[in-house]
Amino acid sequence: QVQLVESGGGLVQPGGSLRLSCAASGGIFSIVPMDWYRQAPEKQRELVARITGDGITNYADSVKGRFTISRDKAKKIGYLQMNSLKPEDTAIYYCNSLGAWGKGTLVTVSS
Q1: Nearest to 38 by CA among 96, 83, 86
Q2: Closest Cα to residue 97, out of 61, 42, 39, 53?
Q3: Are 21 and 31 in contact (CB under 8 A)?
Q4: Which of 4, 14, 57, 110 would you call most buried, defined as having the most Cβ atoms within 10 angstroms of its Cβ?
């Protein structure tokens, strides 16, 4: 069973950037899909980005062109680079792999 720990969240101004990290331990993280989800206040959790074991990526329409998902297989770390952040990107961001969830990291976009 894989264990996941997210980090890198914080307060950023609109138009700014953040890079989230998802550190994995155990399991077979390197060859299975990894997802980033987010949950804004009073909203349902939504899928933001996915990367397959082969490195194929998919993004929600709301973040295409602004967010980039990647992973370092050797270090067992996944990343979400977030650029041109908007207030509507404010949420708790979670990584997910094979049904395992981290506790999330809070991203707040505000001036």
Answers
A1: 96
A2: 53
A3: no
A4: 4
Starting from the edge strand earliest in sequence, which strands make up the sheet with 67-72, in order?
Answer: 3-7, 18-25, 77-82, 67-72
> What letters, b where the CB count within 10 A reaches 16 and e where it falls short, cover 52-72?
eeeeeeebeeebeeebbbebe
- pLDDT category at 46 given cuts 50, 70, 90 is very high
- Per-residue model confidence as pLDDT tens digits over 50-72: 999 899 999 999 999 999 999 99
Instruction: Name which of 100, 108, 83, 82 is nearest 5 in CA terms.
Output: 100
